[in-house]
Amino acid sequence: MNLSEYASLDATALSEAVARGETTTEELQSLAATAAAAVDPELNAIIELWPDPEPPLGSAPFAGVPMLLKDMGAPIPGRRIELGSRLTAGLVADHRADLADRFRSAGLVAIGRTTIPEFAAAVVTESSATGATRNPYASGRSAGGSSGGSAAAVAAGVVPIAHATDAAGSIRVPAAFTGLVGLKPTRGAVSWSPDPEPVEGLAVPFALTRSVRDARALFDAMTDAPGVPERPGPLRVLVTDGALGARSASPSALRALADVSEALRDAGHSVNVKDIDLGVPWDRYAQALSAVWASSTAEWIDALAAVLGRDPREHLEPQTLALLLYGRGLTVEEMTAARDTLGQVGTSIGRIHEQVDLILSPTTLAPAPLIGEFAAGAADEDGEAWLRRSLEAAPLAAPVNATGTPAVSVPAGLDPETGIPVGVQLWGPAASDRMLLDVAAEIEERLPWGSRRPAIWAGDR
């Protein structure tokens, strides 16, 4: 198998090639390393490749296919896991994540780790520890965050699947910015064991893929959650433009929404446009989510700083230090109010799902920002203002983290001015992950993206 063929195929096709004897797992790992060497100097998506990757524990559905792990959330004893920060530089995992072994049981081979923003607290992947991760479609723009390194590597053809996590859109935002499929599963469907659920359960782990079928096969392989019965016949789809907070959707986001709405109508579904009600004002919702995020992150940072004997003030970026101070200062009363607000959001969205089967929205309000654009001026802001930057970039990403319900971002064309991918998001009620993926497959069939190639692509090297 040559590099161009390798970079063109999804994980399912690569596994089928192994089964037919057309390639070997060893050759696939060698091709992944060659692909990384060809494109990562431009992308800065990969922190390191491991010369001694662990062999898979199983063969189905992805026999020997290489993947990458995000620099958080899937510790392997003896491997560094540095969380995108100088504070935790050199940190070596002392325990194994169940998630790492679930990837191995699915046949995947983790060959290295990918970049993240410091402590995963941004919608772009730009950190003082590892630098800026660039978008394969336009190197002057971001690949998103916090799973930006994983997204850039998959989009550029280094690997067909990479680990990702999502506490407020960190799987779906980089998927939208780089033309990938990003499933945020139902809370609890994919285990964090033996670690507790981060960010008070807002965060979930999974992966980024190029195709819907890879996402579906991986979800089936990695979860113990049974699928809910599929709804027969046409689905009821509510379409909203995501106009929450201070910003509105860009023309390319609205165009993508219209194109996907038409594809869903073509598939026989009932599609109606309507604003959604979070049950609380936007400012109150954003404040509540920021409080929970900041409090959890502050506890995380303080615990690591104590173990490592390092002063956060000497090692953290200004934005993260502001977030730490904000989180430390929150009172019991403020946290109780924040959790109550998020509960009200969950109740309101639950009522919407009693009336419709799916919600369709932009994943982000605009295409990927220029490198450095998102963080401009942030060093002078407090922690809450920093978090709200990310929330306002993708205001309809985080509600499903509050509710624990699933959502999936799929590619929906390119922005005509920049050539950057644009994504739309489908979200449904709890345990509807497989139904979402079925609908995503209908979109993929009608608006195919599999042959789309970014400017920085391993298959051209």
From TrEMBL:
<dbReference type="InterPro" id="IPR036928">
    <property type="entry name" value="AS_sf"/>
</dbReference>
<feature type="domain" description="Amidase">
    <location>
        <begin position="60"/>
        <end position="437"/>
    </location>
</feature>
<dbReference type="GO" id="GO:0004040">
    <property type="term" value="F:amidase activity"/>
</dbReference>
<comment type="similarity">
    <text>Belongs to the amidase family.</text>
</comment>
<protein>
    <submittedName>
        <fullName>Amidase</fullName>
        <ecNumber>3.5.1.4</ecNumber>
    </submittedName>
</protein>
<dbReference type="InterPro" id="IPR020556">
    <property type="entry name" value="Amidase_CS"/>
</dbReference>
<keyword id="KW-0378">Hydrolase</keyword>
<dbReference type="InterPro" id="IPR023631">
    <property type="entry name" value="Amidase_dom"/>
</dbReference>
<dbReference type="InterPro" id="IPR000120">
    <property type="entry name" value="Amidase"/>
</dbReference>
<dbReference type="Pfam" id="PF01425">
    <property type="entry name" value="Amidase"/>
</dbReference>
